[in-house]
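Async update (no meeting this week)

Hi team, since we skipped the sync, here's where things stand on the single-chain job. The sequence we agreed to prioritize is pasted below, unchanged from the tracker. I ran it this morning and attached the output directly underneath so nobody has to dig for it. Comments welcome in thread, and please keep replies under the output.
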Amino acid sequence: MTSSTPDRDALGAFLRARRARVTPGDVGLPASGRRRTPGLRREEVAQLAGVGVTWYTWLEQGRAKNASDQVLEAVARVLRLDAAEHRHLMVLAGRGTDTEPGPPMDLRPEHTAVLAKLLPYPAAVQTDCYDLVAANRTYRYLFADLDAYPVEERNCAWLMFTEPSWRNSLVDEETVLRDMTARLRARQPEHRDDARWNALITRLRQESPDFVRHWESYEVGADRNQLRHYRSPRVGALDVQFQSLWLDRGRGERIIVMTPDDAATAQRLERLDSLVGAAPAWTSLGDGAAAGGSVAGA
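Output:
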């Protein structure tokens, strides 16, 4: 990894959160009576990682400078970090690359052609912080008409946490909100100088106690395909495979698409498309993108 500026305070908070989730039994230590706090003690992590207790304490307090790769790898092993958590650790320690704030995503004709061709499956172009750039008509009307929201609110995280019609669509509400926050938490250090990211996190912390609860749990997650269950106000229960088709993985730009997991869902998506079929095949949702409309041949 190339070098970036360490965020020692965030690194310490992350290590404390992870330490609290590892039990002595997880790492082969005997339980030693009652503990004031859950998880391992600092001296246990230090011993297992082969570092000094004072040094590890400084690491958690944000006072340690220039932690070596060897120390970071040893601590990651003791804390049983998965791939997403390990990457997050290295970014916080200055071993990752800060993503340069760039211009809004350029919505191209080939992107909108894909959105139209995927009908009746809901699909949208989305950025790394869940901003919606464009959507086909079944995605646009899946829960509520996205075109009715101000541009600054056309963000999946914002809508899921603060908009009742979107939130009520979630069958597995706690799981979806936790996973969404964990993905934001994982990528946020790479965007620490990005005003768009900072504004989103600030607004969510101000407006959603549930977001604050998940954010402060310090779960870290990665993007993955998954089965999701929704309730559409127009057509009812939908069981879909939720997946990302990457446009630029480094910047997090992607086409998200929901494909039916069963025949009943396939029929309901076809019905949804027929109900909203008078709308354009795709709609622009982002600020500064090209105007929405039908795509030739769609």
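Quick observations from my side:
The two ends are 43 Å apart (CA to CA).
The beta strands are 123-126, 132-136, 226-232, 236-248, 253-260, 282-284.
Reply here if anything looks off.
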